[in-house]
Amino acid sequence: MNSPYTAAIALGSNLGDREENLRAAVARIRSLGRVTAVSTFHRTAPVGLTDQPDFLNAALLLQTNRPPAEILRKLLAIERSLGRDRSHSTPNGPRTLDLDLLLAADAVLNTPALTLPHPRMAERRFVLAPLAEIAPKMVHPTLHRTIAQLLATL
Asked: 1, 56 in Cβ contact below 8 A?
Protein backbone atom coordinates (compact mmCIF):
# COMPACT_ATOMS: atom_id res chain seq x y z
CA MET A 1 0.00 0.00 0.00
CA ASN A 2 2.08 2.88 -1.28
CA SER A 3 -0.77 5.33 -1.73
CA PRO A 4 -2.47 6.85 1.32
CA TYR A 5 -5.28 4.85 2.89
CA THR A 6 -7.27 4.90 6.11
CA ALA A 7 -6.49 2.47 8.90
CA ALA A 8 -8.77 1.93 11.89
CA ILE A 9 -7.08 1.27 15.22
CA ALA A 10 -8.64 0.21 18.54
CA LEU A 11 -7.13 1.39 21.83
CA GLY A 12 -7.70 0.05 25.32
CA SER A 13 -6.23 0.42 28.81
CA ASN A 14 -7.18 -0.84 32.26
CA LEU A 15 -3.99 -0.37 34.31
CA GLY A 16 -2.46 2.82 35.63
CA ASP A 17 -3.78 6.17 34.42
CA ARG A 18 -6.00 4.75 31.69
CA GLU A 19 -6.88 8.11 30.15
CA GLU A 20 -3.24 9.23 30.06
CA ASN A 21 -2.22 5.87 28.55
CA LEU A 22 -4.70 6.37 25.70
CA ARG A 23 -3.72 10.00 25.16
CA ALA A 24 -0.02 9.06 25.06
CA ALA A 25 -0.76 6.29 22.54
CA VAL A 26 -2.70 8.67 20.28
CA ALA A 27 0.20 11.15 20.42
CA ARG A 28 2.70 8.44 19.41
CA ILE A 29 0.44 7.05 16.67
CA ARG A 30 0.55 10.51 15.07
CA SER A 31 4.12 9.66 13.97
CA LEU A 32 2.69 6.98 11.65
CA GLY A 33 0.59 9.31 9.52
CA ARG A 34 -2.25 11.77 10.01
CA VAL A 35 -4.79 10.99 12.72
CA THR A 36 -8.07 12.16 11.21
CA ALA A 37 -10.47 11.18 14.02
CA VAL A 38 -10.38 9.96 17.61
CA SER A 39 -13.47 8.68 19.42
CA THR A 40 -14.42 9.61 22.93
CA PHE A 41 -13.17 7.26 25.62
CA HIS A 42 -15.67 4.54 26.53
CA ARG A 43 -15.61 2.85 29.94
CA THR A 44 -16.25 -0.87 29.43
CA ALA A 45 -16.32 -3.98 31.54
CA PRO A 46 -13.64 -6.58 30.78
CA VAL A 47 -14.54 -9.49 28.49
CA GLY A 48 -13.33 -13.05 29.02
CA LEU A 49 -11.17 -12.66 32.11
CA THR A 50 -13.61 -10.54 34.14
CA ASP A 51 -11.69 -10.30 37.44
CA GLN A 52 -9.80 -7.14 36.47
CA PRO A 53 -10.41 -3.38 36.35
CA ASP A 54 -12.73 -1.80 33.79
CA PHE A 55 -11.21 -0.61 30.54
CA LEU A 56 -11.20 2.69 28.76
CA ASN A 57 -11.56 1.98 25.04
CA ALA A 58 -11.34 4.23 22.02
CA ALA A 59 -10.80 4.09 18.28
CA LEU A 60 -8.96 6.28 15.85
CA LEU A 61 -8.59 6.69 12.11
CA LEU A 62 -5.11 7.05 10.65
CA GLN A 63 -4.38 8.28 7.14
CA THR A 64 -1.09 6.62 6.19
CA ASN A 65 0.85 5.09 3.34
CA ARG A 66 2.81 2.64 5.53
CA PRO A 67 2.18 -1.07 4.91
CA PRO A 68 -0.18 -2.71 7.44
CA ALA A 69 2.58 -5.02 8.75
CA GLU A 70 4.71 -1.97 9.54
CA ILE A 71 1.77 -0.27 11.27
CA LEU A 72 1.31 -3.37 13.43
CA ARG A 73 5.03 -3.45 14.33
CA LYS A 74 4.91 0.22 15.29
CA LEU A 75 1.75 -0.28 17.38
CA LEU A 76 3.42 -3.12 19.29
CA ALA A 77 6.47 -0.89 19.88
CA ILE A 78 4.19 1.85 21.23
CA GLU A 79 2.59 -0.68 23.60
CA ARG A 80 6.04 -1.69 24.87
CA SER A 81 7.16 1.92 25.25
CA LEU A 82 4.11 2.57 27.43
CA GLY A 83 4.69 -0.41 29.72
CA ARG A 84 3.06 -3.44 28.13
CA ASP A 85 5.00 -6.70 28.03
CA ARG A 86 3.00 -9.15 25.92
CA SER A 87 5.51 -11.94 26.58
CA HIS A 88 4.69 -12.02 30.31
CA SER A 89 1.02 -11.06 30.31
CA THR A 90 -2.13 -13.14 30.63
CA PRO A 91 -4.15 -13.25 27.38
CA ASN A 92 -7.10 -10.85 27.76
CA GLY A 93 -5.68 -9.89 31.15
CA PRO A 94 -4.99 -6.46 32.62
CA ARG A 95 -2.78 -4.18 30.53
CA THR A 96 -1.52 -0.65 30.43
CA LEU A 97 -2.24 -0.47 26.73
CA ASP A 98 -3.74 -2.57 23.96
CA LEU A 99 -3.51 -1.39 20.35
CA ASP A 100 -5.19 -3.39 17.60
CA LEU A 101 -5.07 -2.73 13.88
CA LEU A 102 -8.69 -3.36 12.90
CA LEU A 103 -8.84 -2.35 9.25
CA ALA A 104 -6.42 -1.09 6.62
CA ALA A 105 -8.64 0.27 3.86
CA ASP A 106 -10.19 -2.82 2.24
CA ALA A 107 -7.14 -5.05 2.79
CA VAL A 108 -7.74 -8.71 3.54
CA LEU A 109 -4.65 -10.43 4.95
CA ASN A 110 -4.04 -13.68 6.76
CA THR A 111 -0.40 -14.10 7.77
CA PRO A 112 1.16 -15.51 10.94
CA ALA A 113 1.80 -11.94 12.13
CA LEU A 114 -1.34 -10.13 10.97
CA THR A 115 -4.94 -10.89 10.10
CA LEU A 116 -7.04 -8.15 8.50
CA PRO A 117 -9.73 -7.31 9.10
CA HIS A 118 -9.21 -8.01 12.80
CA PRO A 119 -10.82 -11.46 13.25
CA ARG A 120 -12.94 -10.62 16.32
CA MET A 121 -13.82 -6.99 15.77
CA ALA A 122 -17.39 -7.72 14.61
CA GLU A 123 -18.10 -9.54 17.92
CA ARG A 124 -16.83 -6.81 20.22
CA ARG A 125 -19.04 -3.93 21.32
CA PHE A 126 -16.03 -2.30 23.02
CA VAL A 127 -14.39 -2.08 19.57
CA LEU A 128 -17.43 -1.29 17.42
CA ALA A 129 -19.02 1.40 19.63
CA PRO A 130 -16.02 3.77 19.55
CA LEU A 131 -15.37 3.01 15.87
CA ALA A 132 -19.01 3.63 14.95
CA GLU A 133 -18.74 7.02 16.62
CA ILE A 134 -16.05 8.16 14.14
CA ALA A 135 -16.62 5.91 11.10
CA PRO A 136 -20.19 4.54 11.08
CA LYS A 137 -20.20 4.16 7.28
CA MET A 138 -16.83 2.39 7.04
CA VAL A 139 -17.42 -1.02 5.45
CA HIS A 140 -15.99 -4.27 6.76
CA PRO A 141 -14.24 -5.72 3.69
CA THR A 142 -15.32 -9.35 4.14
CA LEU A 143 -18.69 -9.00 5.89
CA HIS A 144 -19.73 -6.15 3.52
CA ARG A 145 -21.59 -4.34 6.29
CA THR A 146 -20.94 -0.94 7.79
CA ILE A 147 -19.55 -0.52 11.28
CA ALA A 148 -22.92 0.91 12.34
CA GLN A 149 -24.71 -2.15 10.97
CA LEU A 150 -22.30 -4.51 12.76
CA LEU A 151 -22.80 -2.64 16.03
CA ALA A 152 -26.58 -2.78 15.65
CA THR A 153 -26.48 -6.60 15.46
CA LEU A 154 -24.76 -6.98 18.84
From this structure: no
85 catalytic residue (yes or no): no
Q: Tell me how many domains the chain contains.
A: 1
Catalytic residue among 73, 100, 106, 145: 100
Q: Is the pLDDT of residue 84 over 80?
A: no
Question: Is residue 51 flagged as an active site residue?
Answer: no
pLDDT over 70 percentage in the chain: 93
Catalytic residue check, 98: yes
Catalytic pick from 28, 66, 95, 124? Answer: 95
**Residue 95 pLDDT level (bands cut at 50, 70, 90):** confident
pTM of the model: 0.94
Domain with residue 121: its CATH number is 3.30.70.560
Sign of CA dihedral 35, 102, 32, 46: positive
Residue 122 has pLDDT above 80, yes or no: yes
- Helix or strand holding residue 81 (H, E): helix 68-81
Q: Which of 82, 153, 78 is CA-nearest to residue 123?
A: 153
Backbone angles phi, psi at 75, to 5 degrees: -65, -40
Range(s) of the domain holding residue 50: 5-152
